[in-house]
Write a structure and sequence with these properties.
Elements: H1 6-25, H2 32-39, H3 43-50, H4 53-78, H5 84-93, H6 102-116, H7 118-142, H8 148-170, H9 180-190
């Protein structure tokens, strides 16, 4: 396998710097100038590789979520039948969403951006719908006789429980890490 192109290397450098800027400065404080400083590239190079600030944030959203979701969806896709659901449950209610990391700050900033930026919102919607479909795939493998609508509802419920629990953990709600969310998730599965 060959060496990545200069454009790919620079884009990766800019994406990493954008993540650091979002963690440090939030959405409002993530400017092309700060990304330039953080990446060690000139502002004109940053603009050349990613465009304006809106383009930068959109590219970053795609870059970040592609990494997270491809790891999750790839692991589920590679698993056989009944092995899919344990991967989903461990990801959603184990190491995938907790403990809270610096990436949660970045994701929260992207969600905030997605409220007003339709293209970022579309990126997030596509990634989250893909995650729900992955969960639904695992449920279909485990509960093939359950009605499709019930599996879809349970998949969405599991995803929402995981995201909501992640938010509660960020607020340092003590019960967020105590396993109650997994118990709630398992009660959804009992209904299938």
């Amino acid at each position: 396998m060959g060496r990545p192109s200069m454009a790919a290397e620079r884009t990766e450098q800019i994406m990493q710097a954008t993540g650091r800027c979002l963690r440090k400065n939030g959405l409002a404080g993530t400017t092309l100038e700060r990304v330039s400083e953080e990446s060690g590239l000139s502002r004109s190079h940053v603009r050349h590789y990613v465009g304006n600030r809106d383009d930068l944030l959109r590219a970053f959203a795609s870059w970040l979520y592609t990494g997270y979701e491809s790891e999750f969806t790839g692991a589920v896709a590679e698993a056989e039948g009944p092995a899919k659901l344990p991967i989903v449950m461990d990801y959603l209610f184990g190491s995938g969403f907790l403990p809270i990391s610096d990436d949660d700050t970045v994701i929260r900033e992207l969600i905030t951006a997605g409220i007003t930026d339709e293209r970022i919102r579309s990126i997030l919607q596509a990634q989250y719908l893909g995650a729900v479909e992955t969960i639904e795939e695992a449920l279909a493998a485990e509960y093939p006789d359950a009605p499709a609508l019930r599996r879809r509802s349970a998949a969405y419920g599991l995803w929402c429980l995981a995201l909501g629990n992640s938010t509660m953990a960020e607020l340092q709600l003590p019960i967020a890490g105590g396993g109650l969310v997994r118990t709630a998730a398992e009660s959804l599965l009992d209904q299938l």
